Amino acid sequence: MTRSHTKKLSSKLFVCIVIGILLPMGLLCLSLTMAYTHLLKSEVRSSTEKTLLYCWQNIENTFSGMLTVSAIINNDSVFMNSLSDSSIDYYDKYVTFNHLLQTIYLQNFGLNDSTWIYLQDKFGNTYCNRSDYSITANHKTPTCYEQSSSIYWDFHAIDEKRQKDYFSMSRVFYQNNLSSTPIATLTISVSTDQFRPLLKQYLNLDVDCVVLYLDNDDIIASYSNNDNPITSEKFHLCRMHLLEANERSSIYEIDSQKYLLNDYTIQSRFDFNGCELHILSISNYENIFGRIEYQLQLIIVIASAVYAIILLVVFIIPKRLVAPIRQLDAQIRDFQVGDQLTISKVSDDEIGSLSQSFYRLTDSINQLFQKLKEENTIKENYHYEALRAQINPHFLFNTLNSIKFSAQIIRADSIVENIDALSKILRYSISKDDELVPLQSEIDNVQSYLHIQSNRFGNSIQLDLDSSVELYCENLVFKFILQPIVENSILHGFKNYTDQGIIAITCEEQEQFFFIHIQDNGRGFSESALKDWQTIKIDATAKLNGLGLAAVHKIIQVTCGTQYGLEIQSIPYEGTQVTLCLPSKHK
Q1: With b meaning 16 or more CB within 10 Å and e meaning fewer, what string describes 54-86?
Q2: Over the stretch 433-473, which tens digit does the pLDDT of each residue have?
Q3: I need a surface site. Which of 92, 225, 482, 580 has the fewest CB within 10 A?
Q4: Alpha-carbon distance 187 to 104, whole Å?
Q5: Contact (CB, 8 A) for 202 and 51
Q6: Distance between CA atoms of residues 503 and 521, nearest Å
Q7: What secondary structure letter does DSSP report for 586?
Q8: Contacts of 473 (CB under 8 A, 6+ apart)
Q9: What confidence tens digit (pLDDT) does each residue in 525-541 have?
Q10: Which stretches does DSSP call E strand in 434-574?
Q11: Residue 423 · residue 397 · CB < 8 Å
Q12: d(CA 519, CA 511)
């Protein structure tokens, strides 16, 4: 039966492996193509990013130079004060302006001879570094009286006379930093031709065209490797594709031609009227893919050879996989509780891990079974000792009643009281109550026991009951659980003890636990006795020769669980505290 199942499993494994090889062969080319497409885009994007930082610094230097020039003019208090003073002659203002320009030219802020610096004050007077100024804004450029912001960027200024495009920055000057009254507007214009050599630095063997633009789709400048510069329509198509794909790098087809698009956001410290600056690189995808086609074919050949080798060894794999499964199946079928399995060598894989788990499971089952046997032995010993302690209790009870009547006749009151106390103990022991009794019943039994012992020791032993005892008097505890502890204090703690002996009982309840503390001021445990106690407490197979402290501890743990039991804290010649930990149960 097992061999038949094994053969079926081997056949299934063989078919699954064969299908698992043939199917990946069909998907291999597709996955390699996708991987190389991603690698291609990453390679082109990475090579372009290497030159991005250096080239952008050159472009940003131009913008920074324009702002620096405007700052120098604005910080010249003599010239600024003259602009707002109508009593100063226009010629004198112009001379001051030219001296200021000479200072600017000497410092070289990245501006060349084609840069226009044009200023108009609030009186309509104009100042310019060159004659015949004819640059106009493509959009309406507000005057200093209409300007709502101190700086305005215009990327589409036009010099109609010279047929050139300019990039302009306009800045409004105010009377002072706290004033809102404009006194002049400065316009610095740089030819867009100045950006094209900078953009050319982006171009490499992979990139055909580079476009510098704002995210409102305004093209600032562009440069192409060929004689066909990018048109506004083609740029908007590429831009729209990237937005729809929600990607910064993508492949796009225009007029049956594939292009690889890469978009970069320029991290600039300038605010171009609330717009971000971008660079879009456009590459011919077919030219790039042709360079790696050979590598792709080589990888396909190598992958085919690898799969052929795998197909040759596929006949061996099922047997090697099924052999340990067959062995484990036989062990599972033959296992019985108590069997000690011989652990054979297992492989370091999932099947080996499964075999080890089975071995651990059998060990756990055997240990649990052994523990149950030991617990049953402890319970049987407890019941035997309890029954032996009740040998012919009715005969003893009747005999004590006869002695009591005889003592009453001769008026021996102390004997009568002791017989009453002993009768209560016997009546409590032979009662048919359940195993659990109220705490008050246990306290009454302890008081009867102490009354008898007082005749032996005099009145040298005192029982102190804390108010918490009355509070928890209805909590259910095991029958005869306190008397062995009190007896241990009297027989051992107060042996040869001349001082007043005190036994104090307190109670407390914490969540599901109910604690009873029995503390005496006797001689305490010796170190050897404490070690013996620790040994007895952890030895589940210790023989119970009576209902002592060890018996109480083991009965609680067997009945309630290992989280409950008995703890002893003792200091020689100072006293002992025994703490009972029981489940919190109420009547």
Answers
A1: ebbeebbebbbbbbbbbebbbebeebbebbbee
A2: 567 889 998 898 888 888 877 766 666 788 899 999 899 99
A3: 92
A4: 15
A5: yes
A6: 7
A7: B
A8: 438, 439, 440, 443
A9: 888 888 888 877 766 55
A10: 436-438, 461-465, 476-478, 501-510, 513-520, 565-571
A11: yes
A12: 23
